[in-house]
Specification:
By secondary structure, the protein is an alpha+beta fold. The chain has one helix and three strands; from the N terminus they run ββαβ. The protein has a single domain, classed as Rubrerythrin, domain 2 (Single Sheet), CATH 2.20.28. A hairpin with a 5-residue loop joins β1 and β2. The N terminus is likely disordered.
């Protein structure tokens, strides 16, 4: 989960590469990119790696 400046989750369009926030997707009746209309979006992951100490 990637957090934008406002603290929300962002998605990225596979086709055009534009980033869409969850708030922007809530306004649209369909789950698709508002820029190109493509329906495949992926959630942007955090770049932080969690390390767990092995026992």
């Amino acid at each position: 989960m990637a957090h934008s400046g406002s603290g929300g989750i962002e998605y990225e369009c596979i086709r055009c590469g534009s980033r869409i926030s969850v708030e922007d997707l809530a306004y649209a009746p369909d789950l698709k990119c508002p820029h190109c209309g493509y329906k495949v979006l992926r959630k942007i992951r955090q770049s932080i790696v969690k390390r767990v100490k092995a026992r």
